[in-house]
Amino acid sequence: xxxxSSLVSRRCFHILGATAVALPGLALAQGAASWPSKPVTxxxxxxxxGGTDALARVISQKLADSLKQPFLVDNRxxxxxxxxxxxxxxxxxxxxxxxxxxxxxxxxxxxxYAKMPYDTQKDLAMVYRIAAGTQILAVKPSLPVKxxxxxxxxxxxxxxxxxxxxYGAGSTPHLxxxxxxxxxxxxxxxxxxxxxxxxxxxxxxxxLDMAWVSAAAAKQFIESGKLRAIGVNAVERMKALxxxxxxxxxxxxxxxxxxxxxxxxxxPAKAPKDIQDKLAAEIRKALQDPAVQGKxxxxxxxxxxxxxxxxxxxxxxxQLPKWAELVKISGAKLD
Length: 335
Known about the structure:
By secondary structure, the chain is α/β, with parallel strands linked by helices. The protein folds into two domains: about 40-135 and about 260-330, CATH 3.40.190.150; about 135-260, Periplasmic binding protein-like II (D-Maltodextrin-Binding Protein, domain 2), CATH 3.40.190.10. The protein is built from 13 helices and eleven strands. The chain has helices at about 5-20, 25-35, 50-65, 80-90, 105-110, 120-125, 150-155, 170-185, 195-205, 215-225, 275-285, 290-300, 310-330, and strands at about 40-45, 70-75, 95-100, 125-135, 135-140, 165, 190, 210-215, 230-235, 260-270, 300-305. About 40% of the residues are buried.
């Protein structure tokens, strides 16, 4: 190499280095533009066939169609969603792993578990609130109540005689049931199950007086009269059961009975912000499809059409103290 060519090479090297320093966002911008360039793993921390899994698969297929890369659903089950969520929190921050989880796995668990292998608020970035997870308060048909006002009075008049079920300690049906017991002084017996399916089996058999259920699992039993719906824990009626009022409409006006769980996408906090933004934009685009909206509504969920990382994060922070208080009232603690 001549002295001249050596000087030219050094000069080019310094120019390229200076350009990289001057444009620190260049690499990230290029990363977002080319993302995804390989398959993306979508971790669902709950069992195949459940509502969260079904929603994740609908969204993943739309993302795959739009972005021309596979979005592979990976069910990692256990510990109220903590096993799968841990895998996401500890994943590489390259944008190729994210979760579709519940308010339970992404928010409530931090108040239930004394020790966790990750810090929810530091290790995870909330990307998009995909759907509201509306639940229905139902009673067995033989219970002599038709609405929320009558139910509140009946619980107070039958102290210590009633039982409610849940999907497990710390689940939203448990938290809502414990709060109902708290405000009525009903001294109800909480019976936790390992999932909704075994709970509903006993519910239909008359072994439970009431429970919060999902439309996906219980719609057929409500429509056939095997369960009586009192109302939905939501700010508006669900399209899957339009004749069922909200609990507020049914006479249960406490704000807790308008609180909704949700299903959402989250990434490792160290994932590039522009990739988080791109994923959010693609999920938002997928949810504009009427066919996708219909599938989500048939599951008993309400699609959220205008979420974003900034909006979802703000909502998340506002909800933290409300769910923390419900967990405290329930007394639920998990190891």
